[in-house]
Amino acid sequence: MSENKDPHVAQSDASDAGDAAVKFVYDFTEGNRNLKDLLGGKGANLAEMTNLGLPVPPGFTITTEACKTYLASGEEPVELRDEVSAHLDALEKKMSKKLGQANDPLLVSVRSGAKFSMPGMMDTVLNIGLSDKSVTGLAKQSGDDRFAWDSYRRLIQMFGKTVMDVDGELFEDALEAAKAAKKVTVDTDLEAGDLKKLVTKFKKIVKSEAGREFPQDPREQMDLAIRSVFESWNTDRAKLYRRQERIPGDLGTAVNICSMVFGNLGPDSGTGVAFTRDPASGHQGVYGDYLQNAQGEDVVAGIRNTVPLAELERIDKKSYDQLMQIMETLETHYKDLCDIEFTIERGQLWMLQTRVGKRTAGAAFRIATQLVDQGLIDEAEALQRVNGAQLAQLMFPRFDAEGTEGGKVTQLGRGIAASPGAAVGKAVFDSYTAIKWSRSGEKVILIRRETNPDDLDGMIAAEGILTSRGGKTSHAAVVARGMGKTCVCGAEEIEVDTKRRRLTSANGAIVEEGDVVSIDGSTGKVYLGEVPVVPSPVVEYFEGRMHAGADDADELVGAVHRIMAYADRVRRLRVRANADNAEDALRARRFGAQGIGLCRTEHMFLGERREMVERLILADADVEREEALKELLPLQKRDFVELFEAMDGLPVTVRLLDPPLHEFLPDITELSVRVALAESRKDSNENDLRLLQAVHRLHEQNPMLGLRGVRLGLVIPGLFTMQVRAIAEAAAQRKNAKGDPRAEIMIPLVGTVQELEIVREEAEQVIAEVEATTGVALKLALGTMIELPRAALTADQIAEAAEFFSFGTNDLTQTVWGFSRDDVEASFFTAYLEKGIFGVSPFETIDKDGVGKLVKDAVKAGRATRPDLKLGVCGEHGGDPESVHFFHEVGLDYVSCSPFRIPVARLEAGRAASESAGSDHR
Questions:
Q1: What pLDDT does residue 173 have?
Q2: Measured at the alpha carbon of residue 26, what is the angle toward residues 21 and 27, in degrees to the nearest 5?
């Protein structure tokens, strides 16, 4: 449901009545944090802070509706200019000065702000209103020529790059040249005269590259900047980020016009970013970065290294104490970790932004349980504050501490632990190489001095990111944490040379592009070579080798345990495993599986047994075929006995043989070569010749739609009945051993009820024979996979002969879309994702509109025929977080997934139940 329903209702009613126009601009005093759809996250939270009485510079927000109109038509809404003018007039009256006024200019920032945080992906321009005339007025009013000219050069640089499409490197090169001429290394050492010359140089760059002068009219500057922010919603980097984070592409961005406050007025001014808790670990304390005599982009860009926020207490205790008080107010109000941007202007603290902060996976679990303990949220809300993707990330291995001791690997340096994890890969020094190498299967570490939004695609491709500049709030750190990528920032002792594609450590070690490096996002350490890894403590906990209540238990494990325990208490969906042997079954059980939802019997025919299957395929007569089946029977039975023992007391769904028989035969090319070589040597190779003939005989143009599944059982006499007998005899043996086997027999690829009825009748006959022979009463459920559109469409008929359905969503996706997964993923899926046809691959997350609709309709039809029909899913979607929520909504009884994904499915099943019960999660 839209978060800004009240304003939309009001607007709709007003326009229907014809007595008021749609409102496109809101003053900061008019909004609140619930209007994120309309005002974007930044605008809604600026309004909320204004409502709380916090020191927010006055301003106004242009709504996302205006942006959507502009993007759809190429023109701003006709009412927008007048609304902006009215709000600008009000702002000028409040500030007692005009935008760009020559003797005392009002300056504003123009900043993007979408509903969902997209750090650095869209445009911002500061110091709008400065011109050749007003820069002298600003100098006179501030009493600081250097500040005025520094602000003007910043405007031309940002405006030139963002609004006028001038290559930003040209400005950077000119700035570096000015510092070199002055023989200084930091911007703050440039004097007013140097900056005045730089402004002249910057204006020449603009004229040369953009073909026009830098605009001197302040209103033109503001209007062009607003348009640029609208357009930045559809830049390549913004679209890429939205795809990565699964943010809808039709939301648009709001634009925030805010009166400027200046952190670059001298040593009593500055700018910073603060977190109410550590976004990397979740621990409580003072976290953030501060930079004296600077503007906000300096901190985020990581161009100058910051000092820890705690240093502000020494620099400006009054502002520090006020900031601590505001941070406490905001965290209590939002009931969550808050990310805050602030500026101090000559000792006066101003709040420029707050939002619920991005955090690492470990921090998310720790913070959720801490907030429960503080009484700020309940367990249901804590469950909504974490997700399956974060839990999966916590299950990845980490570096082995012993592997880094005693000189086993060379430590290159140490930076700031910005986003945890263990990442190993080949060093690359630009995004293009990162993408190119990763597409070739190489694991890479992207190494930069600092990252910027243009590096996003390289950051996505890399295993981890290393920068020599910046802190915990730099672009690299914030984006990496949001994506769950390992990141080390601000490794100052490492010199990064992107032109020569190498880094040099403090002790002189040189790493060339292609050399392997390891980065530890939990400690900030950087190593040459590959550091060995060990299992994560969370996996040790799920394996039962670490107990949450033990004295030496990891704090993170305790947080995971508490949230998982609550998820298990509230979830309705049961979680089973896809497992084909006792070892996998036992691991799945340790990870919390409540049965096996898919045992693929074809996996039992590999290795040494392949020859027996070959004999079955090559059998020319019934006698030969029966002999081959008789040989396979005891082996299958032994497999099932082990599986039923491992899952004693829990359901085990055994799928009868599904793949085409040719998959058990040698490759046709390899076999042809063998036969040809034998013939050339005049060797006798009768078996290979027969195999080749069989391969040719069984060859199909499209095996996925050929002789497989139930069709095999109907065409090859005795194949399915052998498997059913093995299952039944194994169940009887376990019962005699006082076990509790709960076998379910699943017939694959059924398209019509008649197929199922024939196989079911044969299976019931075999089960009855086993019961008579062993004297053991067996209760074996018989059901089918729903993996063909026709099966889903005739689910009411198929339910007459099935006690359960298991949706095989992998094949159902292939047949609904007309895709051969193995072919399309390699050929055109990347293009489809880039063009926005898919937000995500339909093989990763269920296609709700197509495949999902079939599932939903089949559930309804099947249960109409058989109310007690058991329903599950056994495709890969069973472990996908978003898909689990869908399966909960449509009423399935269980999901089944690989053992490693079971904890993720358990967590998401709990979240789905809690969500539908009405958690108050924002």
A1: 93
A2: 140
Residues 6 or more apart in contact with residue 410 via CB below 8 angstroms: 509, 527, 528, 529
Q: In this prediction, what percent of the chain has a pLDDT beyond 90?
A: 68
DSSP symbols for 849-916 = TTHHHHHHHHHHHHHHH-TT-EEEE-SGGGG-HHHHHHHHHHT-SEEEE-GGGHHHHHHHHHHHHHHH
Radius of gyration of the chain (CA): 33
Q: Are 460 and 244 in contact (CB under 8 A)?
A: yes
Residue that has been written with the tokens 């504050």 in this structure = 385
What is residue 821's predicted lDDT score, i.e. its pLDDT?
Answer: 76
DSSP state of 294: -
Length reported for the chain: 922
Q: Are 709 and 748 in contact (CB under 8 A)?
A: yes
What are the angstrom distances between the C-alpha of 77 and each of 71, 221, 540, 746?
Answer: 10, 19, 58, 59
Burial 376-404 (b: 16+ CB within 10 A, else e): ebebbbbbbbbbbebbbbbbbebbeeebb
Tokens found for residue 188: 């703050």
Measure the CA–CA gap between 553 and 196, rounded to whole angstroms: 60
Residue 604 contacts residue 632 (beta carbons within 8 Å): no
Closest CA to 123 of 162, 68, 160: 162
Q: Is 874 a catalytic residue?
A: yes
C-alpha span between 342 and 351 (Å, rounded): 5
Q: State both tokens at 33.
A: 């944090």
Query: What does DSSP assign to residue 657?
Result: P
Q: How far is CA 918 from CA 129, 170, 569, in A?
A: 48, 53, 16
* Structure token pair of residue 428: 């690359």
Helix (H, G, I), strand (E, B) or coil at 662: helix
Ranges of residues in the chain whose predicted pLDDT is under 70:
1-21, 299-304, 403-407, 473, 482, 662, 665, 825-826, 917-922
Distance CA 889, CA 913 (A): 9
Strand ranges for 594-659 from DSSP E = 596-600, 651-655
Please name which of 243, 272, 297, 246 lies closest in space to residue 127, comparing C-alpha atoms.
297
Q: Could you give the strand order of the β-sheet that contains 510-512, starting from the edge strand earlier in sequence? A: 495-497, 502-504, 510-512
Find where tokens 């409580």 sit. 284
Claim: this prediction has a pTM higher than 0.70: yes
CB contact set of 676 (below 8 Å; sequence gap of 6+):
none
Do residues 909 and 575 lie in contact, with contact meaning Cβ atoms separated by under 8 Å? Answer: yes
Give me the catalytic one of 874, 877, 885, 888: 874
How far apart are alpha carbons 647 and 651 in whole angstroms? 7
What is the DSSP-derived secondary structure letter of residue 413? E
Task: Order the strands of the 59-62 sheet from edge to edge.
Answer: 25-27, 59-62, 253-259, 108-114, 124-128
Candidates 87, 475, 662, 885; catalytic one: 475
What's the confidence (pLDDT) of residue 286?
87
Structure tokens at 854: 């079939």
The structure tokens listed for 557 are 């494990």
Question: What per-residue confidence (pLDDT) applies to 692?
Answer: 79
Q: What is the 3-state secondary structure (H, E, C) of 438-481?
A: HHCCCCEEEEECCCCHHHHHHHHHCCEEEECCCCCCCHHHHHHH
3-state DSSP call for residue 29?
coil
Question: Which amino acid is it at 12?
Answer: S
Distance (Å) of CA 366 to CA 359, 391, 400, 543, 921: 11, 12, 23, 21, 17
Specify the DSSP element, H or E, that contains 747: strand 742-747
In the residue annotation, 487 being an active-site residue is answered as no
Q: What is the dihedral of CA 33, 39, 45, 48, to 10 degrees?
A: -60
Crossing angle of the two packed helices 168-182 and 192-210, in degrees rounded to 10: 150
DSSP for 802-818 reads -SEEEE-HHHHHHHHHT
